[in-house]
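pasting for ref
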Amino acid sequence: MTSADDEAKRSEILQLEQDLANLHRRYAALSQSVRILQIGFRALGLSAIALVVLAIILGNIGLAVAMILFVLALLVMTGPKMLLGTPEPGWIDVVSWRPFGIFGPAVKRSEAMAIEDMIAERTRRLEALRAGK
């Protein structure tokens, strides 16, 4: 290889490393949003449970039934493992999803999925360059 080829290879490696660092930062920001979203859903569920207890203490059966149904609906919609367990991979797709139809582009992939693909592609290319291919 000539010196120009080596320089081009070094330049591409530096660019790929910078791209990977930026993509990892973006993915970390999405992960932080997942933690915030999960805390919000847990707070919503705990607030509803507190309202159930308060309604029972006050003797307001209608409110107690409504809040019990709300908590059950929350568990059904999010899934008990997603609400009560550690952050699932699916949460990051919820955070990074674009709305459908009139609210945004009709895409079938989330931003997180695209970032994961870009990270994998750049990692493979970087490994190939470092191996000398």
